[in-house]
């Protein structure tokens, strides 16, 4: 009889490349829906588990979804038909979510973002804590507008730029919502910070601190890791692994 990995086997593999113990205190990564001992016949990988992703999974024989964003993030007081987690259980689909542990991990979200942008030799900006997910790179000297256009082209998206006017050669980057890290980036001596999204006051803070801030979309800065994670799973398990089609919910005009 052909051996099939269990949900627990897949979870343990993900833990080996992006330890769940490294997730931020406020996070909720891990196996969030399903039966640990359930056999896995086909894995679907996606950034966000949505109703459309579940529909695709159920129609294509996927019995485990591995996502970046947690399907259950905060404590819930009900579990009703129509809820995403309820839909997973109803369709017999398990879910493993690797969020900030995959942001922090070597070869994870932020190393993948650096590679996608064509930046070489990214290193963690700090060694411990949340800011260890931020990557720092040295690039050829450039200016804010040129860097912004480069990022827009590499990610095929629109970007926002708060240009402090400095020459840039040291860049910090963090996929997703990295606006909270503006102060830490300034302390690190970086000239620019690339992230997915930031609030108005964070743009103002960046300008005051002398940091050129570029935002390129939460989805766009994190989604490249989906293909990387799918390849890792394909290379370690002899079962079908498929990327579930998904587009950003945001369009730029």
How many helices? The count is: 10
List the secondary-structure elements in sequence, H or E: HEEHEHEHHEEHEEHEHEHHE
Spatial sequence of strands, sheet with the most strands = 5-6-8-9-10-7
The tally of beta strands, per DSSP, is 11
Radius of gyration equals 19 Å
Distance between the termini: 54 Å
Report strand %. Answer: 15-25%
Q: Averaged pLDDT, please?
A: 96
Proportion of helical residues: 25-40%
Overall description:
The protein is α/β, with parallel strands linked by helices. It contains ten helices and eleven strands. The strands form two sheets. Strands 5-6-8-9-10-7 form a six-stranded mixed β-sheet. Strands 1-4-3-2-11 form a five-stranded mixed β-sheet, with helices on both faces. Helix 2 links the parallel strand 2 and strand 3. The longest helix has 13 residues. The model has no long low-confidence stretch (mean pLDDT 96).
Task: Describe the secondary-structure layout.
Layout: H1 7-17, E1 30-33, E2 42-46, H2 51-59, E3 64-67, H3 84-90, E4 94-97, H4 100-104, H5 109-116, E5 123-124, E6 135-142, H6 144-155, E7 160-162, E8 168-177, H7 182-187, E9 192-197, H8 200-209, E10 212-215, H9 218-222, H10 224-236, E11 240-243
Parallel strand pairs: 2-3, 2-11, 3-4, 8-9, 9-10
Antiparallel strand pairs: 1-4, 5-6, 6-8, 7-10
Question: What are the defining features of this structure?
Answer:
10 helices; 5-stranded mixed beta sheet; elongated; 11 strands; alpha/beta
Please outline what is shown here.
This protein is α/β, with parallel strands linked by helices and 253 residues long.
